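Re: [help] complex structure
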Amino acid sequence: MPLELIKRPEHSRLMAIASPIIAISLTVAAGAILFAAMGHDPASALYFYFIDPLSTGWSLEELVSKATPLVLIGVGLAVCFISNNWNIGAEGQYTFGAIAGSTIPIYFWEWDSVLVLPLMMIMGMIGGAAYGAIPALLKTRFGTNEILTSLMLVYVAGLFLDWLVRGPWRDPGGFNFPESRDFSEAAILPSLTGGAMHWGAVFAVIAVVVVAILLARTIKGFEVRVIGQSGRAGAFAGFSRARMTYFAFLLSGALAGLAGIATVSGSVQQLQPVISPGYGFTAIIVAFLGRLNPVGVLIAGLMLALTYLGGEAAQVTMGVSDKLARVFQGMLLFFVLGCDTLILYRFRLVRSRGPHAPCVSPANLKPVKDVP
Amino acid sequence: MDDKRSVSLAVADGPQRSGSDRAPLVETIGLTKRFGELVACDEISFDLNAGEIHALLGENGAGKSTLVKMLYGALEPDEGTILWRGVPVRLANPAEARSLGIGMVFQHFSLFESLNVAENILLGLPAGERRRGLADKIRTISHDYGLPLDPDATVHDLSVGERQRVEIVRCLLQEPQLIIMDEPTSVLTPQEADLLFVTLRRLAAEGRAILYITHRLPEVLELAERATILRRGRVVASADPKRESAASLANMMVGAKVGDVERSVMAQRDGEARLQVKDLSAPASGPFSIALKDISLAAHAGEIVCIAGVAGNGQSELFDALSGETRARSNEAICIDGVPCGHLGVTRRRQLGAAFVPEERLGHGAVAELRLSDNVVLTRHATADGLVRSIFVDARTAGDVESRVVGDYDVRIARQDPEARSLSGGNLQKFVVGRELDRRPGVLVVNQPTWGVDAGAASVIRQALIDLAGSGSAVVVISQDLDEIFEIADRIAVISRGRLSPPVKAEDASRESVGLLMGGIGGQSEPSGKAGKPDGRAEIHAA
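Output below.
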């Protein structure tokens, strides 16, 4: 290989901004090749995928309502990932938050009060946080890998929800469909404009602002960054890694739980066996594409919401599978992580150094630092 | 002059030994390796004959590891030549070195705990080796060389000594002519070490050369036929251990005494100790960690107490215990200004007026990815510096402290408030030390204050430590650099295998006595008569 990765003395500010843009361009280019390989005209396919959904007010509202859970979860995950806690189970915390918050409209369905919605939201956050506390407890007490435990708990939560809506929580007047009863008016998060965009969007913006201040200005945010970058230095600063693990999982769990109950209350308006098209997993991409920065997460959340809408649009107009959305999301994460290398490293062309000296010296074989 | 001596020895020695014009097995001529400004190996010339056990001696940072890494193909020399049986060779990687007949047994093992011995050995062999028959081969070789090993045993169940045998057998399977051993006894019990020596003598008797890296002098006297001594990257002597004593070797290792430093302020030891450590013990936290045993130490206002010792004898464990990163079992084991704090964490100890500078600058004392001003917040967020107001970090105050430290301690930076990683080692060390000195701490504990730092920065740091003590603080310096210790210390103690010798007054200590204690001579618990007046213990109890 005539290319060598050279470590930069400091991280590149330019590349920190350019990297997501390069990644998006590469994703679009790869998408064009993909469409061409499937026999579609790349230009019109990309138009239907990325531009068309932005052309009507109705679909813009749809975009915001899909971005809402992505941003809420992504902001929490950013705190997790910065502090080096790999919460992959936001989907489960989202589901559990939705279940916990739904107990009120399902068990007290006749209760009509202004307290219903705030209580639901709080219950949702507590449910998500409690579910997030499980991998935190396992990590701090038994040293288990939180990637595995949090991921496995996603399936537990999903199956638990499935059992609830088929069993105890099935709508008595629902013709045996696996659904809960419809939420009463008091338990539905009001729309902001009359369309799909509901109050969850406001929660998401508040979460972005609060976490942005937390990370940038407070000593807690400093602790998050220090522990994430060097646990040893964190201990030297007097910060506890175990407490940080709880903090990160409880915060991201609470935000994922809020996303869950807000989506169920604002969009679905009842519990169903499936209440998420994978928001909890897509939010991982959102967090990284947004540079683990809350404001970046807000933008990235809108971007990724577009891939959902584009997938649906492509299915309708071109008859391709809506799984294409997943392909685009996967490519995006792949390119984002690849391009992030450029923030700390730069490429250098290497001329051949003769037959005796191989291009790879042991110093270059050190692994590239993993995800930021 | 010393260099010439080694070269002339090498030239005179070769023909004499073999009685023919056969060249030495390995010879290096002017081997040089630089890391940035630091010259790790400076024109090293030495040679090694077949059938010889050759000790490579030196303090930490003397260049031993760099030299053997070049011999093993893991580092490329910047200048100089390696001759293998008289022929210049270029070793691009360890595989080439192995195919030539150079094997190495590392200090830290690279074994998979969940695999068995045979599987581990197979993994280290060149691709294409067959598993069949390997177990028998392992049994034969390990039995022949007195290294009994069960090929089917899981590594997880093996003792440290047995794990080392796996590494040695793996090395022997490749029929090496030169075996490099990096501090092989550092993890062994004395009994295991004796067994290892039998094996090494036997390997040498078969005509293999053994390059034995150590800083334990008694082993050298017992085992080696020749010793090459490195100091600060240069060969300072090539000696015949039979004609030397441990003391003379220690002298060569640590260097001749340079001019005495005059201390303007003498310690006032009549007051209460500002840092008092009493019978501090801590179990080892892992296989490569050292247990601390009954450490007692007192540092008074106005004095610098230096703790000398060879790396890996418990220095970092002692530092962590003093800083509070590991808590003591007894709250009274550590007192700062009379306040028992063995159970308190690092933040509370800082609030009592203590400050700490660890050995590792990046990743422990500072975070590479953070700006210097953020690194100020790292250790000073909870002390009365006004860096944190309620929950918010005051970036402006942090920036003010950062500029003050950068100015006062001559930290050279390319631009305003850079990331810590962009600073050179010496500059970052000045910053990390300066950040703590800027607080005017009552007690300062610093581990390796000038490790890998150029001479200019080192003198800035040492002067700052002396000034701090002069202002009435107690300073504890853990160091492996005897030059430094004799330059700044009021009292000197030596740490060896987790035990601390009673401190002696610097003027009563000699390099020889300290060097002997560092090399493990003179007993770990009892000071020998040579170690100067052991007035420290009485002092501690009086304090």
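The CA atoms of residues 114 and 186 of chain A lie 7 Å apart.
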